[in-house]
Amino acid sequence: MLRVLLVTDTDKPIGDLRDKLARLGYEMLAEVAAPASLHAAVESQKPDVVIIDTDSPSRDTLEQLAVMNKAAPRPVLMFSNDADQQFIRAAVGAGVTAYSVEGLAPERLAPIIEVALARFAHEAQLRQRLAQVENELAERKVIDRAKRLLMDRRGMSENDAYATLRKRAMDQGVKVAEIARQLLSLADLLG
Amino acid sequence: MNSPASSSFASSATPTPERTHLRLGFVALSDAAPLAAAALRDMGRRHGISIELCRQPSWAAVRDKLLSGEIDAAHALYGLVYGVQLGIGGPQADMAVLMVLNRNGQAITLSKPLADAVHGGASVKDALASLGRTPVIAQTFPTGTHAMWLYYWLAAQGVHPLRDVRSVVIPPPRMADALVEGTLDGFCAGEPWHAVAEARGAGRAVVHTSEIWPDHPEKVLACRRDFVALYPNTARALVRTMLEACAWADAPEHRTELAQALASSDLLGVPRELIEARLGTRNGVAPVRFFDHGAVNYPRLSDGLWFITQYRRWGMLASDDGDDDAAVAASVNQTALYAQAARAAAVDVPGERRAATFCDGRVWDGSDASAYLAGFEMRA
Q1: What is the pTM of this model?
Q2: Reduced to 3 states, what is the DSSP secondary structure of residue B16?
Q3: Which CATH class is domain A3-104?
């Protein structure tokens, strides 16, 4: 069962949203009304989805959790009764992991929650892949710099320089990039 | 030129702005003063723009509304702009820093018992350890300035900001209450929230941010990069308007009027006395400044680059390849546009290079970011 955390720290009326979502089969966690307790609630109750007002002052608390607890970022669903929904939608289009809800009709909320979860999972996968590619690229740059250092200072050929790095990596049981990094910081130290 | 005669800012053949009405976002903080001054005194009029202030309930809302176009520009944490540019923890978008709006004026407050211990001579590390549990210290936004001041200062005290404390975000107006309730042991934020906490007996400031990085940049005037590209005349008119507003806000003789304006429920909703007391020098601490002959306002590239070094230090950027960081700063900080606007307003443009000695004795002058970063022993 999907666990939903509802944050109600603004005076926007939520009516019987909570009951209706529960009737639709969601497990509704204890409501959070005070911003100071949101952090603990998200960490301890581990909701699958957080629903929060776009105007909530607690939104920055969720930002902190998303940046500092990479292991468990959660999709955040925002509700807004205002006329500014088109702007929220634009923000969503720009990549905010958040979804606007037209008013608060629970029967319309349910499919949005499902879509939010699916899209969040997809984006998390993309982010992971991107981080991996960036990491590989950065490693390649470090290895190239270390090779150049060996070629310049030891007069090695490019192949020999790489073979030297790789051999040491295998001897120590670490990645070639790690050996390259060690070499570069040592070279930095020695000037 | 703290209190410029209006002629020194007079329009000299300003091209007509493409946009005449601008919506500016701000968060309820004393250093939103230049925006308050600009709106209060309709300072945009002579530059062909009118300004509408839009108070935002969170920094996340500032970001989302900048990205969606609901607001055109905003009073923003320096680091927030760079966090969005780098896509840390949220959407990525090309952002612009038009100018710096203030330096200094932030602080770290600890709960009363902890602050008493520190003021009594205990080290911060020992005072926090005396709690016998993990201290909880709040800041305002994960990539923001307050998070970076807090982490830097804790690290300089031998306290690991990510392991030895729980760093949380709660809205600044709630911080004093949380200290009283005991759910919080300290916080780093802007004024007037330290004044509020102290007035309530909830805690006391133990360090001002000007003691962490003397004359550090704090809030900036931020917008999307495409706003600058589409409306360059408007951006210049806005910078000229805000330079005038910063100069006005910096003048001691305007402090009471400024604090009165900020105190209104539309802006901060905090008593004037609490706001005004923190606008000037107290106890020899370098105060918030908005102008200082333009020395405050130049969007120096090395300032932007510093935030990236700290994101790398604390593991907020995945790869450790910093080769392009200087280029990121050069694309975000609109130095050329700023210089044009400042010259047209007869405001001095300071040099690019500035060296500062931080609270841990380390010097940052923007020249070698990777060596600077490598020199930090405590990191993520």
Answers
A1: 0.84
A2: coil
A3: alpha beta
Q: What is the ipTM of this complex?
A: 0.90
Out of 3.40.190.10, 3.30.70.2740, 3.40.50.300, 3.90.180.10, the CATH code matching B6-104+216-299+334-349 is: 3.40.190.10
The CATH number for A131-190, chosen from 1.25.40.10, 3.30.420.10, 3.40.50.10350, 1.10.10.10, is 1.10.10.10
To probe the interface with A, which of B143, B319, B377 has the most A CB atoms within 10 Å? B319
Gap from A97 CA to chain B (nearest CA, Å): 7
- CB within 8 Å of chain A, chain B residues 302-361: 316, 318-321, 323
Q: At A112, is the secondary structure helix, strand, or coil? A: helix
The greatest distance separating any two alpha carbons of chain B, rounded to the nearest whole angstrom, comes to 65
Instruction: Say if the Cβ atoms of B174 and A95 lie within 8 Å.
Output: no
Least Cα separation, residue A47 to chain B (angstroms): 18
Is B89's CB within 8 Å of A185's CB? no
Q: Do residues A32 and A20 make contact, with C-beta atoms less than 8 angstroms apart?
A: no
Give the three-state DSSP class for A27.
Answer: strand
Q: What is the β-pairing status of strands B356-357 and B363-364? A: antiparallel
- Using CA atoms, how far apart are residues B74 and B53, in angstroms rounded to an integer? 9
Please tell me which of the candidates A90, A141, A188 has its beta carbon nearest to residue B374: A188
pLDDT in tens, chain A (191 residues): 778 888 888 887 777 778 878 887 888 888 887 777 888 888 888 887 888 888 888 889 888 887 876 645 566 666 665 545 555 555 454 444 455 555 556 666 666 677 666 766 777 777 788 888 888 888 999 999 999 999 999 999 999 999 999 999 999 999 999 999 999 988 888 86
